[in-house]
Amino acid sequence: MDFAHSPRALELIEKLRAFMREHLLPVESELLKARHEARRGGDWKQWIVEPEVKALKAKAREAGLWNFFLPDPALAPGLNHVEYAALAEEMGRSFLAPEIFNCNAPDTGNMEVLWKYGSPEQKERWMKPLLAGSIRSAFCMTEPDVASSDATNMQATATLDGDEVVLDGKKWWSSGIGHPDCRFAIFMGVTDAQAERHARHSMVIVPLDAPGVRIVRMLPVFNDYDEPYGHGEVHFDSVRVPQANVIAGLGRGFEIAQGRLGPGRIHHCMRCIGAAERALELLIDRGMERQAFGRRLIDLGGNQERIADLRIAIDQARLMTLYAAWMIDKVGALKALTEISAIKIVAPSVLQRVADEAMQMFGGAGLSNDSPLAAIFAHARVLRLADGPDSVHRAVIARREIGRRSKGGGSRAA
Amino acid sequence: MDFAHSPRALELIEKLRAFMREHLLPVESELLKARHEARRGGDWKQWIVEPEVKALKAKAREAGLWNFFLPDPALAPGLNHVEYAALAEEMGRSFLAPEIFNCNAPDTGNMEVLWKYGSPEQKERWMKPLLAGSIRSAFCMTEPDVASSDATNMQATATLDGDEVVLDGKKWWSSGIGHPDCRFAIFMGVTDAQAERHARHSMVIVPLDAPGVRIVRMLPVFNDYDEPYGHGEVHFDSVRVPQANVIAGLGRGFEIAQGRLGPGRIHHCMRCIGAAERALELLIDRGMERQAFGRRLIDLGGNQERIADLRIAIDQARLMTLYAAWMIDKVGALKALTEISAIKIVAPSVLQRVADEAMQMFGGAGLSNDSPLAAIFAHARVLRLADGPDSVHRAVIARREIGRRSKGGGSRAA
Amino acid sequence: MDFAHSPRALELIEKLRAFMREHLLPVESELLKARHEARRGGDWKQWIVEPEVKALKAKAREAGLWNFFLPDPALAPGLNHVEYAALAEEMGRSFLAPEIFNCNAPDTGNMEVLWKYGSPEQKERWMKPLLAGSIRSAFCMTEPDVASSDATNMQATATLDGDEVVLDGKKWWSSGIGHPDCRFAIFMGVTDAQAERHARHSMVIVPLDAPGVRIVRMLPVFNDYDEPYGHGEVHFDSVRVPQANVIAGLGRGFEIAQGRLGPGRIHHCMRCIGAAERALELLIDRGMERQAFGRRLIDLGGNQERIADLRIAIDQARLMTLYAAWMIDKVGALKALTEISAIKIVAPSVLQRVADEAMQMFGGAGLSNDSPLAAIFAHARVLRLADGPDSVHRAVIARREIGRRSKGGGSRAA
Amino acid sequence: MDFAHSPRALELIEKLRAFMREHLLPVESELLKARHEARRGGDWKQWIVEPEVKALKAKAREAGLWNFFLPDPALAPGLNHVEYAALAEEMGRSFLAPEIFNCNAPDTGNMEVLWKYGSPEQKERWMKPLLAGSIRSAFCMTEPDVASSDATNMQATATLDGDEVVLDGKKWWSSGIGHPDCRFAIFMGVTDAQAERHARHSMVIVPLDAPGVRIVRMLPVFNDYDEPYGHGEVHFDSVRVPQANVIAGLGRGFEIAQGRLGPGRIHHCMRCIGAAERALELLIDRGMERQAFGRRLIDLGGNQERIADLRIAIDQARLMTLYAAWMIDKVGALKALTEISAIKIVAPSVLQRVADEAMQMFGGAGLSNDSPLAAIFAHARVLRLADGPDSVHRAVIARREIGRRSKGGGSRAA
């Protein structure tokens, strides 16, 4: 047992931190402030990628701080999940970092899908520019009219018609679809409703300019639109794409979705850890700066106990996430379902709690956009729903625990 | 001991419910949607009071559903706090109701202050139009540069100069100051920094058009500006007002603030109870409507236990708030500090929790503005800070508990 | 709405407090210490009622501080439930008080059952000596081999055979059955397994000396046997009693059980409130007495916030319990199911929490029997299971909430 | 980063599991039942080590499953802390296991102290028989009259007088002192009250038969005396021992105590993890066995979510404890204070929670001694106080967090 990161990971962490300290953090708050002041709100057609962001992307790529997430040494640093996790934590400290280093959701997940399941043509046409950071993409799974946590509820269809596939249905919470560089989405729909439960769905690449694709609106989270990514509501009305756009073959959508989710959750959760560390730093700093009743805020009431509890919660969440990452590396995502579901519950919830406590320490300033706390909180809140609400993940874990005991096994796998 | 409301209160509750059902609720969601779509954001100079709201105010006043909060039978229905509490709960179910019935913060608190402490001239000039609903007002206490939970930190000054008082300082979270009808604020500042701790401050009426008053910006709460009220940052630069604008006399600001806060907290907390009931209804309805894994969401996992826990939490919060109201009626706010601090902690926290759980049941729709949950949540969140953060109220309660035991008394007052 | 107790209740509270202060509290700790030192453990045949307890009972009866629980002015002070609740809280501060004032479980429930449903002969023979305090009784419902929270699981039988009823089955957690004065039990068994779900069971009076009744052992709660009451495991082997011992008629057991539980829960819960107040007093006193790191324990870390949170929790639990009592008085237990289930969840849980926190303040002394905290904790713990575990009560509340919304009603009854 | 145990640890885990499955578990419940039935209670002079336990010890020693805790390859398997942790978890599943494998507290801590700081003579005379399992020992630090969490409160003295040291004072919660084989204690007392805060105390070996040592009583935890170890109250009245009994030299007591606590906490916490796994297994099994309302208990209400939450809590606690163990191995206990304090808070608290929930699933059987849950619960409860209450550990963590930020560092060490 060894909790130290590999030398390769440690070296990249150092480089990443240095890059962020020197190039990113000095401009970030001004940039975000300018976004707020531009007040583009949900009007995504006005959204921009600022020149500073583009310059930082170029610089990061040049420095080799790029595509950490892809475990393919031919195309990227080739880290495993547990190594990447440490970098994701660092990137989670900044709202801009993930895109700067070409590690932002949902593009990472889409690149992984194409890398694992894509045809050579799909890789050439869609994965390559994503890896280069020259285009962005979206993922269209969740639907407005049903409980999407149950995949069998899905109403959208991907129907074969000759050598074309016809896409129909309504999707929402399609993250990233408002990005000015977003060029395509991966669409998930039912191809054969009569097939076995896990062989009904297909994943299909759909260019956003295909006739019949209509972005209806961007959805806010606590009035925040996550510019320039956005969470879109998108309607597909008899959208026709060549069958060559189907990923891995018709009916394999569920399988791909399963494979996509494990690593994606590691990414999200490790970013949560980084954001939580940042929120805790803000909390402590504010508590040291301000005074009331003759003492620093941090010395009043239960504030020190609160800090200790948050430290413990963050450290436990980090270890759990790293453990899940290691399990994926060792036995694969399908055998690490308990661990992946566990971190999906824990990490966003810890982040929300740290942000909430930091707001209390800040007072009103914590609720406004004078601090990043409101944005951090909103991010945590949406993650408690994205990729399945907590209750679905609890059910996954419970089913496995009970199953193991039914067979007379220990309550624990390992 | 009798938990039933008085016949007078019951009659008004019925009338209020009927009015809201017939006149208010049918238009509310359209109105709020229109506000969102107008996307005025923090640009408060563009804020409006919609004609529908004005019409509803007129209709409510005509129906005698007006100024419930004021315990003066000559000017209002003349309810006590425990009777008013029931009506505040009903109004809390709607974002528009408080103003429609002329019971919105901070005007209620300001009217009470003027009613209790105002000179005849102050009543005539400022209280009367407030009672008529023709103007609105703000309250300027919290400051950006210090921990305002400790009044001795206050930096703003109200200095006597001849027969004028000169106001200087920065205030923020001045709620209501963005309202198109807002005409004046009650400003709190230090008059004599050497005086006894509770005799330093003064409260002064300041017309918003007085030279030197500058509204710098509106502060968002999770990007929501609470249009058309707003939480403003206001700078006062050598603002001169006649000494006649001082309320009750120089040095009496602290005393007035104390008296103001008890009833105000009852109002806020009872509105929280109403909003929590509404959020719970939304949660249950959504859970009955949607299906996953072959069952209604409400029948899955721990959802029923969650509903039970929320019901218990709401009922306990309601009883605690009514008890605090009754204590104010019987022994006055200063002897009910434990109870008032208790509800100030409990009610917003219960509301935040119910809203949070309802969001989980709604999925993404709960975070966007398709449901009122995000606005309810933001409202609860700001109330955990407004009028003092939870930790300050815990300190108030603890001090009294310990004090009682130090004197050998029981742990409980009554 | 009026939170003040009636003059009658207030007068009795004063008298009860005075009696406890003068007569009971001075001897209680010595008495309990002597019990511990006697180390009779679960050997219930050695259990005694100490002469001091007998003397106090006589004195209390003489003073008219007796049978407060019975709402019958002909036989008792004739208080309603909300009045009694206040007295139950006071009695809850002491382990001995309930019996001293003839208000201890399960005798109170048994007396109520006989008072409401008993025949004149049953009242004469069994209720009268119970009311006089000269005998004690037990209640045999819970069974060892099934989940007793579901009454349809009950395996014990009460079969009519000529003019006798034959009782068979195993019961446990039969509280009070170890008492030296325990003379009879009320036994619940299935009479007609084919009858409608609520008409299957009967309640039958069974003298403990009837052939076939065998007390197998006393069950400990955290190794505490609750001497001299005890929780017994009792086997009934073809026990024959005259049909005249059936209460209210065969098949009415379920109905009686329902009626029995409402008031009984009020009693338990209000005693919890009293015990919680006592535990909080102990916590505060200890925190003031001891020092560490140069300060009183009470001034360290989050201790003051903890005290505030406990005060709030206790006050909310008290109000909720009083409200449930008032509902029983006004509309009857069957229409107050939500409120009764709510307090059944809340009050023992608050007591356990207060006792747990007090133990932390005491350190090791809190776990041993040098303080009453371990006994208080054990009492709270068993109450979270007695009369139905929390989860069953949550289900009751949830079903009613959802039912109300299904009919389009508000989420709240009143 | 590698979460797998070393081959050496894995091999020992397998052997240990096999031994426990074959030899220990089959006899454990009968043995514990016999102890209960013997009803020796706190009468420690009657306590015995059962012949079965002695035989198992001999067998374990023979099998090389012995002294895992000692990181000295010359005297023991020579595991590091992270390797030992896995074995401690396994042993934590049984109440008997720790002694069977000569790994029970407080002997492990005492052996470590003697191994690190003892003179050759001390090792020969006291450590050797401890390592052989032929005697047991106690540790006398906590005192009844002061808050012992602050070492400067200590009142007991160890005064040099010629070539003897004179011990005076009262100690309690001296664990293990009731064991029939207990031969000596390590006593901590003040030698020089004027010395620098960390140089005042000495640790002295005191044979239990030295004149002036008086065991006054055994202290129960929820009426459980932890036979045959016990928590004793011991008075030292002018007890004289040769100066050669001082460990490491006068004034070094604090330093030794610090070093002792780190590994000891790892041991306790890992045993908590094992006990929590066992309690969770019991919970799940009971929930599958019993039915109510037509379904298995485990399928009712929030039970499955509860299981998931407990699984997550246990896994996080395990990872945190392993991480602390690894930190001790890498950088030493003094640099791992945050991690050690974190697990000291988390692990007992998780164990108490799992035991509490399992009791709810069991109903009354969970509170009695028919299941091991009450004993598990009591064990968890005492651990929340032993080695410092949670609040002291929170203060340790907070101080370090704040210190790091004061110096401009990140909120996290690594």
Helix content of chain A: 40-55%
In the CATH hierarchy, what is the superfamily of the largest domain in chain A?
A: Butyryl-CoA Dehydrogenase, subunit A, domain 3
- The gross shape of chain A turns out to be globular
Radius of gyration of chain A: 22 Å
Protein name (chains A, B, C, D): Acyl-CoA dehydrogenase family protein
Domain Acyl-CoA oxidase/dehydrogenase middle (chains A, B, C, D): 138-238
Domain Acyl-CoA dehydrogenase/oxidase C-terminal (chains A, B, C, D): 251-400
Family (chains A, B, C, D): Belongs to the acyl-CoA dehydrogenase family.
How would you describe what is shown here?
- 4 copies of one chain form a homotetramer.
- Helix content of chain A is 49%, strand content 15%.
- The first copy, chain A, has helices at residues 7-38, 51-62, 81-91, 97-100, 107-117, 120-132, 253-289, 303-331, 337-362, 373-383, 390-406, and strands at 136-140, 157-161, 164-175, 182-190, 201-207, 213-219, 231-242, 291-292, 295-296.
- The radius of gyration of chain A is 22 Å and the shape is globular.
- Chain A has 414 residues and is an alpha+beta fold.
- Chain A has 3 domains: 7-132, Orthogonal Bundle (Butyryl-Coa Dehydrogenase, subunit A, domain 1); 136-251, Butyryl-CoA Dehydrogenase, subunit A, domain 2; 254-406, Butyryl-CoA Dehydrogenase, subunit A, domain 3, CATH 1.20.140.
- Chains in contact: A-B, A-C, A-D, B-C, B-D, C-D.
- At the B-C interface, helix 7, helix 8, helix 9 and helix 11 of B face helix 7, helix 8, helix 9 and helix 11 of C.
